[in-house]
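Trying the structure run again after the queue cleared.
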Amino acid sequence: MKATIEVVCYKSKVLANNESPLMLRITKDRKLKYSSIGISVNPAHWDFEKNKPRRNCPDKARIEQIISEQIRKYREQILDFQAEDKEFTSTSLYDRVNNQIKRRTVSDLFKSHIANLKAQKRTGYALTFSELYNSLILFHGHLDIHFSDIDVTWLRHYEAWLRFRGSAENTIGKRFRTLRAVFNLAIEQGIVKAEYYPFKIYKVSKLHQTPAKRAISKEDIMKVINYQCTDPYDRLAVDLFTFGYFMGGINFGDMASLKSENIVDGRLVYIRRKTHKLIRLPLQPKALEIIERYHTNGALFLFPILSDFHKTEQQQRNRLHKVLSNVNKRLKRIGKELEIPIDLTTYVSRHSYATVLKRSGVSTSIISESLGHSSEKVTQYYLDSFENSQIDEAMKNLL
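Done. Tokens:
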């Protein structure tokens, strides 16, 4: 139902000067909203059929001008809602025109979005937005600006500033992809009109740099898996690499959080912390062997990374960072010893899992080379949606 905007004389209310207030009446979906326009007239000078002042109305021209201006503001806002394909009510229309909804700044949205991500336990993703927020503060001095202020020129100045500071190409690309995501969120929440979107002209894709190779051959993977360890910490590093490879490229953070209840009917079942997707994979014999190696009665987690001592989220993050740094340091040394062509890390295990499956002819619908990058959510979606038997068959190619 279309909205109608008209001014009526509210004759049931008589003011001290014997006049009645003129009210703006908004009608939408059979619901009415009245708002005073700040002037009044004597009912005798008002044409109730045509809802306008009579010819003999004192100050008729001024009253008509005020009425026209009020109606114009509402009609323009209705057109804006229609252009955004956004539903509205008589109340939300009134609120928008009269600024009852605070116009949020760039800083406002950043802070609320980061807080929401932390509340959802998506701390890694929240950190990405926090890093961008801090970078923009250094660049601009403050973010008490509106999204309409961020135009193509502003973006080019920010890019030039990042380059002057020596930021790597991938870092610059990450900053702008994150900023684009924030701007899209602002449009979605009605904070800024889509017409102000600067990324139609400023192309973030031009900042893309082909990432360094992170996958190794199946032959090199077997070298790592079969590496003879004498040091228990080297053994842990190799085992975590191996477990990641055999268990769907599970990343270090998710691996560290695994508990006994994540093993169900011979399958590893867990929820990816980054994408919140449910993963169900057949527990490979080599992976089961590694789990049994570290099994300790009463231990909270499967692997000796986290413990019940690490209660807060910050304690867990600090512990994960410390252990991952040590694990990757050892993997790099082992990789050089084995003459692996790239630096060995736990992430190489994840990428190698994807690459080996693809080179074995497994459909990219099930697993793609870009696992863990911008299309990771899509990849995980496909992993979730296929039948267990399809995934079981695909994972047979790992050996």
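Residues 224 and 238 are 7 Å apart (CA to CA). Worth checking whether this holds up in the mutant runs.
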